[in-house]
């Protein structure tokens, strides 16, 4: 168990790995075209139907935002081409969940181009975790179809703007640039012009448009852009970059995956139906037709399983780099006690200060890749002081009955590795 404990300590403490970060990559620029989007533009020239995937967080998920606006721009710019889109944006999530989602939510629909937007939600994560997840997304994509083009896009928040204004990339985007550079993937700083306009005094990041008629008001909360302003600036930046890449003289060539950038990347990440797990106790299946929580999360899960009985558990026998659950958090959730090989336990809180409503969430814990592990996700019998937790955000239990239950939910098993019979 010492080796397992050491891996878990490394995972959560994130000591910085030593990778060369050249000054060229640190500098923020609208576009680094690298090998461009050769197969995408080849299909455009041929007038063939094109599927565009958008993998990201809430900024990508947003209706009327840069995702929809950029697809509309493509349709207007290339009217002879039928464009369709895949909306794989999930609010509040980064590349560490995106690498699990990309197969079923994007790649199974055979995209020709995939935009990857995680710089905001990966902010604060250590570079090594970003390397693992972003490289996993790249290798999964090209392992399935080497003709699928990829493009990393970097959005921003008000907190990240000063870094751009100094001509530098935030740490999350810089980590992604390492992967982009290694694989020749183009990257676009969607927020560079936004930061410049703010520096010039022409844009404010937070407010109501009617309160500042002489300014461009980016958003209501410093993060999520208004469609007419922030998202429009993102779309204009992407359109400018796409025009530049359309002029590249790049001959499409089948991609061959090279040696990984990091050997412990998450290419093997998978989402697995919880039906495949051993269940002990009173787990019940809930669907949008039978349960209000499942209905609230129906865009994330077609169904969930749930137990409120302490001691009930889900069990998986696995071998690989990491294991966890894609689940739900909200007023009526408690916590898991995660047991690894029956001699290591870790509490996984499923209630936090944002649990006034239900939302999808996830957790992943590293495992020793050279060992077979039996992992149990057990409903904890420890009570959660929900009132105290909510108070940290000045929130209260306005309807105490909604908070009485201490249930655990599960939607998908998250696994970097394989299930062992």
Total DSSP helices = 13
- Terminus-to-terminus distance: 22 Å
* Beta-strand percentage range: 25-35%
Q: What would CATH call the class of the largest domain?
A: Alpha Beta
- The SS-based structural class is alpha/beta
Shape summary: globular
Query: Taking Cα atoms only, what radius of gyration do you get, to the nearest Å?
Result: 22 Å
Q: Give the name of the CATH architecture of the largest domain.
A: 3-Layer(aba) Sandwich
Q: How many beta-strand segments?
A: 19
Residue share in helix: 25-40%
Note poorly predicted spans.
1-22
Largest sheet: 8 strands, antiparallel
Q: Report the CATH superfamily of the largest domain.
A: SGNH hydrolase
Overall tally of structural domains: 2
Under CATH, the topology of the largest domain can be stated as: Rossmann fold
Mean pLDDT: 94
Give a structural overview.
This protein has 421 residues and is of the alpha/beta class. It folds into two domains: 16-246, Rossmann fold (3-Layer(aba) Sandwich); 269-419, Sandwich (Jelly Rolls), CATH 2.60.120. It has 13 helices and 19 strands. It has helices at residues 2-13, 23-26, 38-46, 58-61, 66-77, 95-105, 127-144, 161-165, 171-183, 192-199, 230-246, 292-296, 386-391, and strands at 31-32, 50-56, 83-89, 113-117, 149-154, 187-189, 203-206, 216-219, 269-273, 278-280, 284-286, 304-307, 313-329, 335-340, 344-349, 359-366, 373-379, 408-410, 412-419. The strands form four sheets. Strands 9, 10, 13, 14, 15, 16, 17 and 19 form an eight-stranded antiparallel beta sheet that branches. Strands 1-6-5-4-2-3 form a six-stranded mixed beta sheet, sandwiched between helices. Strands 11-12-18 form a three-stranded antiparallel beta sheet, with no helix packed on it. A hairpin with a 3-residue loop joins β14 (335-340) and β15 (344-349). α7 runs parallel beside α9. The relative contact order is 0.13. Mean pLDDT is 94; it is low at 1-22.
